[in-house]
Amino acid sequence: MYICPAKIIKQFKENMMRFKFIVLSMALIIAVNACSKENKENQAPTKQANVHQVVVQEAVQVNSYTYLRVKEGDKEYWMAATTFDVKNGETLYYTSAMEMKKFESKELKKTFDSIFFVDNISKIPPANVQEGLQATPQKPTIEKENVNIQPAAGGATIAQIFSNPNSYSNKSVSIKGKIVKVNSGIMGKNWAHIQDGTSSGKDFDLTVTTKDEVKVGDVVTFEGTLSVNKDFGYGYSYKVLLEDAKLKK
Fold first, then answer.
1. What is the average pLDDT value for the chain, to the nearest integer?
2. Is residue 151 part of a domain?
3. Are 241 and 164 within one domain?
4. Which residue has the higher pLDDT, 181 or 32?
5. Does the pLDDT of residue 5 top 50, yes or no?
6. How far apart are the two ends of the chain, measured CA to CA in Å?
7. 3-state SS, one letter per residue, for the chain
8. Distance between CA 92 and CA 95 in Å, rounded?
9. How far apart are CA 8 and CA 14, in angstroms?
10. N or C terminus: which one in the chain shows less Cβ crowding within 10 Å?
11. CA distances for 100 relative to 50, 55, 112, angstroms
12. How far apart, in whole angstroms, are the C-alpha atoms of residue 233 and residue 192?
């Protein structure tokens, strides 16, 4: 069978064109990937993503910043945030940070090899983040104090509330007790723990949210709405929670 040489040459040229196109395409993909990798490696400062859970090892307060030496899993590093109240051992959460290399703090007279500046730090994990959490957050450990406080007139005791929470659900409740712990400015509220010396089983501490200012050691009377089985997610669930409480004089 006779085959025209011209057709063979034409087919050969078409095959060569396809081969060149494939080679050029592969070269372009490799080049783009290399540039993308180089850009990521050269980007500074570096931004961290997702939700990070850290435990405070050391806190240093200066005029405008709180410097924190924190531990995240097995990793330990320094962070800085706008001045806020924090104690060693507390758990904090943040979703993004900006790393600075060889940062010099004139107030501390110290140069950090690496430090992360955070503007969204919180003592409660972000409610709208569903993934990326490094570990399960834990509510603060509260020890029972030796107190014996008489209940407010017409009010309830911690033992009464915990022994029959459904009878108080969504009702206004007054309770008198001693402030044993306060976390201020979380989700626009202050979170106080109070005890009155009574208990029901292992429950002896009531969490109260309020916009009023209180401090540890105060003996106060709160009135607020009692919520039952309140769950904020990430391990922060409450059998009972006295919400939007106000101080009674």
1. 79
2. no
3. yes
4. 181
5. yes
6. 111
7. CCCCHHHHHHHHHHHHHHHHHHHHHHHHHHHHHHHHHHHHHHCCCCEECCCEEEEEEEEEECCCEEEEEEEECCEEEEEEEECCCCCCCCEEEECCEEEEEEEEECCCCEEEEEEEECCCCECCCCCCCCCCCCCCCCCCCCCCCCCCCCCCCCCCCHHHHHHCHHHCCCCEEEEEEEEEEEEEEECCEEEEEEECCCCECCECCEEEEECCCCCCCCEEEEEEEEEEEEECCCCCEEEEEEEEEEEEC
8. 11
9. 10
10. N
11. 19, 21, 9
12. 19
Domain for residue 103, yes or no? yes
Residue numbers of the domain that contains 181 = 158-248
Token pair, residue 130, equals 């569903």
Q: Which pair of structure tokens corresponds to residue 155? A: 């009010």
Backbone angles phi, psi at 158, to 5 degrees: -60, -40
Considering the domain boundaries, does residue 77 fall inside one? Answer: yes
Q: What predicted TM-score, i.e. pTM, was given to this entire model?
A: 0.49
Q: Which pair of tokens denotes residue 168?
A: 């108080």
In angstroms, how far apart are the furthest CA atoms of the chain?
114
Between residues 242 and 38, the one the model is more confident about: 242
Domain co-membership, 171 together with 98: no
